[in-house]
């Protein structure tokens, strides 16, 4: 249990196998907070600096093009990047903590307890960890927009990525000048959030165990909240285990896509998913080049996106096959737990807690693979690009 929880905290996942408020002591809660904070900051700085490393590996011409597309990043001073990541993180978490503390005070909590809960939940929201130490859980406040909105804002800001935040700070008045990365991340996040919200409303509208007995306001909040949290947030206002199979499947798909690059979110990333979508769309249209926002997508980037997506699907499929061999549960619920671990989301149908130790170990491995694997793979693919002096004759096998 200690290994699972520590891994979940440091990998900013949020999966639990015991009741967090009651099982762990205040000291344990503090350790979880520090692990999640360290993991979140480390992920953002590490992914951002790896992005800089990739850019430095490019030839001069490609480097200049990359700088024009990634004008949010300063390639000259690593310490500047580290300071900016730390400053943005602490300022954002402080503002969120203030908002949440005021809301908890409104529940009648003592000042000390409200401050602690505000700080804990603000950090967990921004780093997309999803742990909660509220004795009654967030489900007791499923209709409270004043609590739900700060948590969603924290998850969204932490999940879109530091490069996007920095570019928005510099270029918020000129959307037409945003890089393709920023446009893909922002529009993709908005679109997937709305699609997820609509799907949950459709599938859970009459489910008495989730949204069926709620009023309109609570239904809208519950659907929006769940859609945002599938991007890697991990908090839940309603019982995830009580969702229908259709909601479970759409949630699994959203979790696998994940959030933005160089963020605390997991998954294959929004940009990877949308780039593949543009490639498919160009192929359907019979276009030679894949185009997004009037810019050609580099063929190397297309191959990297395919490699990352297929590797993720392969890892999830392998873990699903292993768990299905000895865990007695519906396959969609097993898949939900595997993807939640791999994408470092933290939502659960309750299956993680009831798994045997071998199954929990598989989830621990998936959390590590999902947290480190996709970033490392993308960086390795980008830095290993080289032109071979040998080109073999071309041939076209039949596809489809």
Give me the strand/helix succession.
Answer: HHHHHHHHHHHHEEHHHH
Mean pLDDT level: 84
Total domains: 1
Structural class: mainly alpha
Low-confidence spans = 57-76
Number of strands: 2
Amino-to-carboxy terminus distance = 47 Å
Give the overall silhouette. Answer: globular
Helix content: 55-70%
**Helix count, DSSP H or I runs of 4 or more residues:** 16
Largest sheet: 2 strands, antiparallel
**Widest beta sheet: strand line-up:** 1-2
Q: What's the Cα radius of gyration?
A: 21 Å
Features:
single chain, about 400 residues, two-stranded antiparallel ribbon, 16 helices, 2 strands, globular
Polypeptide structure, described:
It is a single chain. With 400 residues, this protein is an all-alpha fold. The protein has one domain. Helices cover 67% and strands 1% of the residues. It has 16 helices and two strands. The protein has helices at 2-10, 20-23, 26-57, 60-69, 78-106, 111-126, 145-160, 162-171, 180-204, 216-233, 245-257, 270-285, 299-324, 331-342, 351-354, 357-383; strands at 291-292, 295-296. The chain has a two-stranded antiparallel sheet with strand order 1-2. A hairpin with a 2-residue loop joins strand 1 and strand 2 (295-296). Helix 1 packs across helix 3 (26-57), helix 7 runs parallel beside helix 10 and helix 13 runs antiparallel to helix 16. It is globular.
Topology, pairings included?
Elements: H1 2-10, H2 20-23, H3 26-57, H4 60-69, H5 78-106, H6 111-126, H7 145-160, H8 162-171, H9 180-204, H10 216-233, H11 245-257, H12 270-285, E1 291-292, E2 295-296, H13 299-324, H14 331-342, H15 351-354, H16 357-383
Antiparallel strand pairs: 1-2
């Amino acid at each position: 249990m200690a290994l699972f929880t520590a891994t979940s905290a440091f990998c900013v996942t949020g999966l639990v196998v015991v009741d967090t408020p009651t099982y762990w002591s205040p000291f344990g809660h503090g350790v979880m907070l520090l692990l999640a904070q360290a993991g979140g900051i480390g992920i953002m700085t590490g992914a951002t600096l790896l992005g800089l490393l990739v850019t430095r590996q490019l030839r001069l011409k490609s480097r200049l093009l990359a700088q024009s597309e990634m004008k949010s990043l300063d390639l000259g001073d690593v310490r500047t990047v580290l300071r900016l990541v730390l400053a943005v993180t602490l300022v954002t978490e402080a503002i969120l903590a203030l908002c949440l503390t005021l809301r908890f005070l409104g529940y009648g909590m003592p000042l000390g307890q409200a401050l602690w809960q505000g700080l804990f939940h603000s950090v967990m929201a921004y780093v997309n960890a999803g742990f909660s130490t509220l004795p009654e859980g967030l489900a007791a406040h499923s209709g409270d927009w004043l609590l739900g909105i700060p948590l969603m804002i924290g998850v969204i800001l932490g999940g879109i990525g530091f490069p996007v935040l920095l570019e928005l700070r510099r270029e918020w008045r000129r959307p037409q000048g945003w890089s393709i990365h920023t446009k893909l991340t922002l529009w993709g996040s908005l679109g997937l959030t709305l699609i997820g919200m609509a799907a949950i409303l459709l599938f859970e509208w009459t489910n008495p165990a989730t949204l069926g007995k709620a009023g309109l306001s609570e239904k809208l909040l519950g659907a929006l909240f769940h859609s945002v949290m599938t991007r890697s947030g991990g908090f839940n206002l309603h019982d995830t285990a009580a969702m229908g199979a259709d909601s479970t499947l759409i949630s699994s798909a959203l979790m696998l896509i994940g959030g933005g690059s160089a963020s605390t979110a997991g998954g294959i990333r929004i940009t990877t998913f949308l780039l593949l979508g543009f490639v498919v769309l160009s192929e359907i249209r019979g276009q030679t080049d894949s185009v997004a926002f009037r810019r050609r997508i580099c063929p190397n980037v297309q191959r990297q996106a395919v490699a990352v997506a297929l590797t993720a699907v392969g890892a999830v499929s392998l873990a699903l096959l292993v768990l299905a061999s000895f865990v007695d549960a519906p396959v969609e619920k097993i898949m939900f737990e595997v993807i939640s671990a791999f994408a470092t989301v933290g939502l659960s149908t309750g299956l993680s807690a009831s798994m045997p130790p071998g199954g929990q170990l598989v989830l621990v491995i998936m959390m590590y693979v999902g947290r480190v694997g996709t970033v490392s793979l993308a960086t390795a693919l980008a830095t290993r690009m080289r032109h071979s002096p040998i080109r073999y004759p071309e041939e076209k096998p039949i596809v489809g």
